[in-house]
Amino acid sequence: SSELTQDPAVSVALGQTVRITCQGDSLRTYYASWYQQKPGQAPLLVIYGRNNRPSGIPDRFSGSYSGNTASLTITGAQAEDEADYYCNSRDSSGNHRVFGGGTKLTVL
Amino acid sequence: QVQLQESGPGLVKPSETLSLTCSVSTGSISSYYWSWIRQSPGRGLEWVAYIHYSGSANYNPSLRSRVTISVDTSKNQFSLRLSSVTAADTAVYYCARELDYYDSSGRIHGAFDIWGQGTMVTVSS
Hints:
The complex is a heterodimer.
Chain A: E1 5-6, E2 9-12, E3 18-23, E4 33-37, E5 44-48, E6 61-66, E7 69-74, E8 83-90, E9 97-99, E10 103-107
Parallel strand pairs in A: 2-10
Antiparallel strand pairs in A: 1-3, 3-7, 4-5, 4-8, 6-7, 8-9, 8-10
Chain B: E1 3-7, E2 11-12, E3 18-25, E4 33-39, E5 45-52, E6 57-59, E7 67-72, E8 77-82, E9 91-102, E10 108-115, E11 119-123
Parallel strand pairs in B: 2-11
Antiparallel strand pairs in B: 1-3, 3-8, 4-5, 4-9, 5-6, 7-8, 9-10, 9-11
């Protein structure tokens, strides 16, 4: 399968914890990466691999896996975390890259 | 820090060919995979194609018949051509570097760690 499925929208109260999920058969084989995109900006890599953060990404962002589902967790969400979040991985063949449909995160 | 910059026409007529170039600065194009990714207005991200500095390439199956990606290592650039465009090809086009890494079993994975700012391409007569 070449599809990654995300919930279209999620909300979280300021300072609380939120989990954004990404489902797909290929995630049983390939790691996901997660991107934050704010309006008018290019996506920014926030998590890749089992649970790796690029330099400069706050440690409130973390990643995890269960079966065919990858999750991005924000522990203590901040107002500046309000954005669209996309997961990305390879398809089951490993030859092509695929993105999830994106999740709009609202911080209340 | 490596930087990417897309360039090309912002307006393309229907049925014509869209051509974009990504310039890689403050770093070499060698040793990485490089992709084009697009985003239609108000929509999600769509991977278009990748190329390795060696010249090997792969394409989104839904676009394969219309897409060509190429690399010029002497200029530290890679390019995208998308033929027979329609309004559905109107999008912000991003170029991105893929960081590849291996798991404990030796399987390769990737993540797009560096992105260009994106360039808006409108298909209209």
